[in-house]
Design brief:
Layout (H helix, E strand, L loop, with lengths): L5 H6 L3 E5 L3 E2 L6 E8 L6 E4 L5 E6 L6 E7 L6 E9 L2 E11 L15 E4 L1 H4 L30 H6 L1 H7 L3 E4 L3 E2 L14 E5 L6 H13 L3 E7 L8 H4 L30 H9 L14 H18 L3 E5 L6 H14 L4 E4 L6 H6 L16 E2 L2 H12 L9 H8 L11 E3 L8 H4 L4 H13 L3 E5 L39 H18 L2 H5 L1 E4 L7 E6 L4 E7 L5 E3 L5 H4 L4 E4 L5 E3 L4 E3 L3 E7 L1
Parallel strand pairs: 2-8, 9-10, 9-18, 10-13, 13-14, 14-15, 15-16, 17-18
Antiparallel strand pairs: 1-3, 3-6, 4-7, 5-6, 7-8, 11-12, 19-20, 20-21, 21-26, 22-25, 23-24, 23-26
Helix pairs in contact: 8-9, 11-12, 14-15
The structure holds calcium ion (CA).
């Protein structure tokens, strides 16, 4: 539990929680709402000891253990001041608060020049065995061969392997959530927060998180924080002592969300179906926050600003985006963007079909009234298409035609280039298993991912052929071999990998390092051609450079006449495959090998 500060103890206050725990002077937004929690604190009058912080209002909700103090800090300097609690005009106790000097982080945001690496901190590397079990927490079960127990991975383990990540060639790090999850079980994945202002002690602490951010930035690696507004863990301190009945959505009996995000744009949907989607609980131990409640809104928004300032974050990935109240999402992105115009934002939209996915993008060509200023979405539709392209036979609507049609539907977006593209993630079967452990197909999908529009995201271990189907999901969250002392193999090093794993690693590394300086991939235009004979061909191009990609997942080599590509090839004679250095004559047909991909620089 947080957060009885030593100052609070010294002052003998009943305050147990302060959210946010401190703030900064000179923020863009003039107001701050401080939520204090402590036994019967609503029974006091509250005043301030500051001359330039203005007390706007003090609000209590149903529960006398909370007060919400609205402050105008627009004229305030950095300072410490007290909330003074009195009864009948007589001071009873005070609670100290601080407005710090801003470090004014300038988030770098995310762009298609980036490649994100997603990892699950409990399962990546154990840099500090001493924090594996924290006896004061509810779950003390550590068992590495269990899929649902904690394994001991932590922030120090990530710091210890920043060189590995840098050497691989990724430019941004997305960790599954690292906030305290003091739940009795299933807490390893981090999606059931019980304290929004603490790093889970089994991962480290705030200082170590800042340290990770600083060290990552020194290597040119950006920091992405995974946040969840839809739900929290049922052991969250504010769930165990609810500020008000409307803090969460409550039902006469347990009501689970339908997970059917389609109800939001369904012209024939019932209000019942819409409400259960948005207000139903994600699971029994994950209560659904009411984002219509303005105090919940402030709590969540300020929390994101606080972490951006504290840890110098570059971007947020918003979990279960489609399940959060849409009006709140707009407000959230407005507040964050006002404070940090360069901050990157992308939302998880695990939905079916491009029109449904595009609906959540905001500012699209079809959903003009919803502008969440969300820069991108997790592009599940392109993920489905890659799977199909590599596993289905080619046909009018199947195989690589799925890639073609999915990209056609980019017309729905005003800009799809900031969608986060991927081959797998922590919820999905691992890519290498899905494609039948076929290294040639692996190269096709990876080559596509790293040359197509979007911000690619690589799930930890995919570069070394980690495998398994997500049934159960723990199977796709196994430990990265070598992350624990005494592991029988260390796959962070070439000598610990099998020849096949090394082939995959070297392929990904070569492409990532090539991609880093290829502005034509980052910001060049995209032109695709209707697939022919099972071969899908597209170009990335700008004024200076043209890249031609041809991919053929079939079992036979296919020769493709090049004359139809003339509008992109007319200024060039040769095409050199960056993978093999093989050079092709653009005036002749090009033969794409069986289960092959050609990534060609035109010369
Ligand atoms: Ca550990």
């Amino acid at each position: 539990m947080c957060c009885l500060s030593s100052a609070a103890i010294a002052a003998n206050t009943p305050i147990e929680h302060t959210a946010p725990p401190y703030w900064w002077a000179n923020m863009q937004h003039p107001d701050l709402q401080v939520m204090l929690h402590g036994k019967n604190i609503a029974h006091y009058q509250v005043k301030l000891s500051s001359v330039d912080v203005q007390l706007k209002s003090v609000t209590t909700l149903d529960n006398p253990n909370y007060v919400f103090i609205d402050l105008d800090i627009s004229q305030a300097k950095a300072q410490k001041f007290d909330f003074v609690f009195s009864q009948n005009g007589k001071k009873q106790f005070s609670h100290s608060y601080e407005l710090k000097q801003r470090q004014t982080p300038a988030p770098q945001g995310l762009s298609p020049a980036d490649v994100i690496y997603l990892l699950m901190p409990d399962r990546f590397a154990n840099g500090n065995p001493k924090n594996d079990v924290v006896s004061t927490m509810q779950e003390t079960w550590l068992q590495r061969d269990s899929l649902i127990a904690r394994h001991g991975g932590d922030l120090q383990g990530i710091i210890d392997h920043l060189d590995y990540l840098d050497n691989l060639g990724i430019t941004a790090l997305w960790l599954n959530p690292v906030l305290t999850n003091d739940q009795p079980k299933w807490s390893y994945h981090g999606y059931a927060a019980t304290d929004h202002y603490q790093i889970d002690p089994r991962f480290g602490d705030i200082e170590l998180y800042r340290n990770l951010s600083q060290k990552a930035h020194q290597k040119g690696i950006k920091m992405v924080k995974d946040v969840i507004f839809n739900h929290v863990g049922d052991q969250h301190w504010f769930i165990k002592d609810l500020p008000s009945a409307t803090w969460i959505h409550q039902f006469p009996k347990f009501t689970k969300t339908t997970y059917m995000t389609s109800t939001l744009m369904d012209p024939y949907a019932s209000q019942h179906d819409k409400s259960v989607l948005l207000d139903g609980w994600f699971d029994k131990h994950m209560p659904d926050l009411n984002q219509h409640n303005q105090y919940v809104q402030n709590y969540l928004i300020q929390n994101c600003i606080w972490w951006t300032e504290v840890a110098q974050l570059d971007a947020f990935r918003l979990d279960t985006y489609a399940y959060s109240d849409p009006d709140f999402l707009v407000l959230w992105s407005e507040r964050l963007t006002k404070e940090y115009p360069t901050l990157g934002l992308f939302g998880e939209t695990w939905v079916q079909g491009e029109p449904i996915q595009a609906y959540f993008h905001g500012n699209t060509n079809i959903h003009k009234n919803f502008n969440a200023t969300m820069h991108g979405l997790t592009d599940f539709q392109l993920y489905y298409a890659i799977n199909a392209a590599l596993n289905e036979n080619f046909g009018w609507e199947t195989g690589v035609s799925r890639l073609y049609y999915t990209l056609v539907k980019d017309y729905l977006y005003t800009d799809a280039t900031h969608n986060v593209t991927f081959l797998d993630n922590h919820d999905l079967s691992r890519y290498y298993s899905v494609i039948g452990e076929d290294i040639e197909k692996y190269k096709i999908g990876m080559g596509f991912l790293l040359t197509m529009r979007g911000i690619p995201c690589i799930y930890y271990g995919t570069e070394i052929l980690m495998k398994n189907f997500a049934n159960p999901d723990g199977l796709v969250r196994l430990d990265f071999a070598g992350g624990w002392q005494g592991d029988s193999a260390n796959k962070f090093e070439a000598k610990g990998r099998t020849p096949q794993e090394q082939t995959a690693f070297a392929f990904v590394q070569q492409l990532l390092q090539w991609r880093q300086n290829k502005t034509v991939i980052h910001s060049g235009k995209l032109m695709q051609f209707i697939p022919e004979k099972g071969v899908y061909t597209y170009f990335r191009y700008n004024d200076k450079e043209t890249i031609m990609v041809m991919l053929n997942p079939s079992n036979e080599a296919v020769s493709i006449a090049t004359d139809k590509f003339v509008e992109r090839t007319q200024n060039y004679q040769k095409a050199t495959d960056i993978l093999t250095q093989q050079t092709f004559d653009l005036s002749k047909s090009i033969t794409v090998p069986a289960k092959g991909i050609l990534i060609m620089e035109l010369r």
